[in-house]
Design brief:
The chain is of the alpha+beta class and 167 residues long. It has a single domain, classed as 60s Ribosomal Protein L30, Chain: A. The chain is built from four helices and five strands. A five-stranded mixed β-sheet has the order 1-2-5-3-4, covered by helices on one side.
Length: 167
Amino acid sequence: MRLPAILIALLSAAPAAAATPEQRLSAAGLLLPAANAPIGLYVPAARVGKLLFLAGHTECPIKATGTLGVTMTVAQGKANAASVALCMLATLKAELGELSRVKRVVRVMGLVNAAPDFTDHPAVMNGFSEVMVTAFGDAGKAPRTAAGAASLPRGIPVEVEAIVELK
């Protein structure tokens, strides 16, 4: 008996669902960079019970500078936000040893260095969220704020902080 194509696709996708976040990222062609060292007097993460609070993150290492709506397009900002997500995942891995210790992303706060009339902050932040969903599936979807900032440290385009729940 031949299985319908949809069943074959679902059955072949089953092992991917059981894959680790690192394997899902790798399958998507995404590599974790080395985590950035803090550039001020703070720690990159602090654990309180089963919650891990992550400090504001940039891309690792910082390469891009710019202002959305002035020197950067939405597509460039979205790509930078995706790089920020990879940096945050690198911090998580450094803190936890493996990303599979994350139960879910609880909260995300994204700041976008933007011109006063720029209004596509959510589209920029989708780059971050898409990487988290790639790593953690539905557990990577979180309540999120995407806000504009008149400036960010060192002229970076995107800074993101988050809270994750641990297993």
